[in-house]
Specification:
42% helix, alpha/beta, 9 helices, 9% strand, Rossmann fold, single chain, 6 strands, DNA polymerase, domain 1
Length: 223
Amino acid sequence: MERNKLKAIIFDLDGVITDSAHYHYLAWKELADELQIPFDEEYNEKLKGVSRMESLELILMNGNACDKYTLEEKEAMAEKKNDNYKELIKQITPEDLLPGILPFLKELKSNGIRIALASVSKNAPFIIDQLQINEYFDYIADAASVPNAKPFPDIFLAGRDEFGVESCECIGVEDAKTGIEAIHRAGMKAIGVGTPDQMTEADLLTTTDKLNLCEIRQYFNMV
């Protein structure tokens, strides 16, 4: 069987590069409390890898309030949550990189592997700035410019198309079930670094501190 050449690795952000999910939780929690809708960290798991407006709908659903507000009101709520989140993530520093990520990015860069970011967060560029790792990313997909959020493959395909490579030459790294589905729908192999119960469909389940280019190439039979 012909071996594919590994040319690009495409990363999710939250839970893969850094854990900014807690800041999302705090911002959504404040909004939910204002709306008097039950919201805790367990329910917050449903929001992983989901766009802002879809997340809001899930929260409203939990309070049987989906039909209570107009689209304009919902958009204002989502904007309010995002403003709060943007204040919270100003606290992020390079110390917030997840274990093993910086060495892995350096390893990929030194081996000529293209690196893209495929995050549904419109704040992704700001967070990458805060983490001081811009130099490692060849492309950051614009969440606002892709037609469909995960689990649709659009944001991973954006990275692939930017590099002019084939799906079989790319690997995606995710921590959310919807992200793994998006990677597979893009025709790519998926590395899962999330909780095992969310990663049952991942082709390889590992942790960020164990990401290693040589082992990944061997595992996926990619030179």
